[in-house]
Amino acid sequence: MRRLLPLLLFASAVVLGGCASADPEPDGTGGAVAGSGGAVPDTGSGSGISQAENDLRIEVDLGDGVAPQTWTLTCVGSVEGTHPRAADACAHLDGMTEPFAPLPEDLVCTEQYGGPQTAHITGRWRGEPVDLELSRVDGCRISQWDSFGPVLPVPVGVEPLG
């Protein structure tokens, strides 16, 4: 038994040594940030620049054969971006409870066509990732589009709600 003890200790040391990081970072953290519990912060890009909490990219295709329009919208204290109604859009989004919640899978919608328009909104809102596709292909999606008010354009020939 006494001969087995050193062998057991050696085997344990080898196994535990294999669990250590083989490629530690220069700061000695093994890639983790101190106090982060091992998590590396999401910087939003490889450049080390973090994305704003309310920072969106909105691409709208009016379905008329013209190239899609792309706008940026940043709503953090001051309003920034290329959106044509940036201040109105930020105020409207701020007043919505969950603006980017997807429609439920089992939602029953009226069969009506609101037009060929589509939109894709990506980025971050209230610190959460956003990736929402919108269209006007049925009653539910028309209502969803219209709920965005000044964020999305009102299609030609359609009266805005409210």
UniProtKB/TrEMBL annotation:
<dbReference type="InterPro" id="IPR036819">
    <property type="entry name" value="Subtilisin_inhibitor-like_sf"/>
</dbReference>
<dbReference type="Pfam" id="PF00720">
    <property type="entry name" value="SSI"/>
</dbReference>
<feature type="domain" description="Subtilisin inhibitor">
    <location>
        <begin position="69"/>
        <end position="132"/>
    </location>
</feature>
<keyword id="KW-1015">Disulfide bond</keyword>
<feature type="region of interest" description="Disordered">
    <location>
        <begin position="24"/>
        <end position="50"/>
    </location>
</feature>
<feature type="signal peptide">
    <location>
        <begin position="1"/>
        <end position="22"/>
    </location>
</feature>
<keyword id="KW-0722">Serine protease inhibitor</keyword>
<keyword id="KW-0964">Secreted</keyword>
<protein>
    <submittedName>
        <fullName>Protease inhibitor</fullName>
    </submittedName>
</protein>
<keyword id="KW-0646">Protease inhibitor</keyword>
<dbReference type="GO" id="GO:0005576">
    <property type="term" value="C:extracellular region"/>
</dbReference>
<dbReference type="InterPro" id="IPR023549">
    <property type="entry name" value="Subtilisin_inhibitor"/>
</dbReference>
<dbReference type="GO" id="GO:0004867">
    <property type="term" value="F:serine-type endopeptidase inhibitor activity"/>
</dbReference>
<keyword id="KW-0732">Signal</keyword>
<feature type="compositionally biased region" description="Gly residues">
    <location>
        <begin position="28"/>
        <end position="38"/>
    </location>
</feature>
<comment type="similarity">
    <text>Belongs to the protease inhibitor I16 (SSI) family.</text>
</comment>
